[in-house]
Design a protein that fits this description.
Layout lengths: L5 E7 L3 E10 L2 E8 L4 E7 L13 E2 L7 H13 L18 H10 L8 E2 H7 L6 H9 L12 E2 L16 H17 L9
Parallel strand pairs: 6-7
Antiparallel strand pairs: 1-2, 1-5, 2-3, 3-4
Helix pairs in contact: 3-4
Length: 197
């Protein structure tokens, strides 16, 4: 994987600056988003052949904060080798404006082990609302930190289920979900590098 250190800063309204740093993986680009306080606010996946479209006007270059480089290295190892990420570094995140239900869903999601999957019904039960599978799906659709908060590990009873709000099984986002589950599973159950005689 090669890094493309395109780091830009943009302003929304004139009060809050939003910065991003983009690097490339074999499945497209990853953009880290952070605020003026250098706290992470989001991660965006950029499909291959696409460019990152910031919702903020007046973009300008800005360096990646040093405390986020470790996260970039972890993400590179994750995408290249399927290596598990460290525990979610809450201290580098911006204070999220999540509801109590969203917090329960995201924290429950973090208990799904690397390389394993659970259903939407399981996640609803784990979050304390066993009948709220649709609501869980809406929370995951708005997940600002995919990969770090691994919504790709949640599947439906009959298949992959949606991912990033997409339902067409041929959509690149669902192909990405399938790929992420695959690289995690390969890391857990590696193929033998050679046959013993």
């Amino acid at each position: 994987m090669t890094e493309s250190p395109r780091s830009r800063c943009a302003r929304k309204n004139t009060r809050s600056a939003v910065n991003y740093f983009e690097f490339q993986t074999s499945m497209g680009g990853i953009a880290l988003i952070w605020n003026e306080q250098e706290r992470l606010t989001g991660i965006h996946w950029i499909p291959p052949q696409n460019t990152f479209s910031s919702p903020y006007p007046n973009a300008r270059f800005a360096p990646l904060p040093s405390h986020l480089w470790n996260l970039v290295q972890q993400l590179c190892n994750y995408f290249c080798f399927g290596e598990p990420l460290a525990l979610l570094p809450w201290e580098i995140l911006a204070d999220p404006s999540w509801t109590e239900f969203q917090q329960r869903v995201f924290k429950s999601l973090l208990t799904i082990p690397h390389g394993e999957t659970r259903t939407y019904a399981w996640l609803a039960w784990k979050a304390g609302k066993p009948r709220a599978t649709r609501a869980v799906g809406q929370v995951l659709r708005k997940n600002p930190l995919p990969i770090l908060i691994p919504c790709h590990r949640v599947v439906s009873k009959t298949g992959m289920g949606g991912f990033m709000g997409k339902k067409d099984p041929q959509h690149p986002a669902l192909k990405l979900k399938e790929w992420l589950i695959g690289i995690e599973n390969t890391y857990r159950n590696p193929l033998l590098p050679c046959l013993l005689h």
